Amino acid sequence: MELNQDDQAKMRSQMHVRTGYANVTKSSEQIGRNTSNMAVKQHKKHQVVDTYFSSKIEEMQKEEELQSAAVQLLDGDQLVARVLQSLSSSKEQEQQMIESYQVKCQELDNIERLITQDRAKKFKPCLICGRLFANMEHLKKHEKESKLHKDNVEKLKFAQGTLLL
């Protein structure tokens, strides 16, 4: 009994698959698609599980490394020695900064003193007003004609008079 080609193709394309529920007829293409989809889903599940556990393992390893580092730090006098060393180095740095600041202050004081001496040589000061003049001639003119100078002299006399009383 020979089947024609259409019937043979139809028979080949259909397959009886026994599932747990009933006999279901599926084509081979449908079975292939289903198995492919199942494989993809299974692969995704494995990836999720792998990434979850690999991250957990990494966390545990990091935690163990931190614990071992803490134990090493606390072991013996290493921690105390490190603290003392850092304190002594910070004190040394502080002392160096203070010394350099003192040197700079001394240099500035010397420069200011030199400038003041140089200015005193070049200029003649009015001791009452505190103004500087280029020569004695201008200073004398200031003392005779300046209203500021005369006011300052009066204030000085008044202040001295109140102190004497």
From TrEMBL:
InterPro entries named among the record's database cross-references: Znf_C2H2_sf (IPR036236), Znf_C2H2_type (IPR013087)
Keyword Zinc belongs to the record: yes
Source organism, top-level taxon: Eukaryota
Domain C2H2-type: 124-154
Molecular function per GO: zinc ion binding
PROSITE patterns: ZINC_FINGER_C2H2_2 (PS50157)
Coiled-coil stretches: 84-111
Zinc-finger in keyword set: yes
Alphabetical keyword list: Coiled coil, Metal-binding, Zinc, Zinc-finger
UniProt name for this protein: C2H2-type domain-containing protein
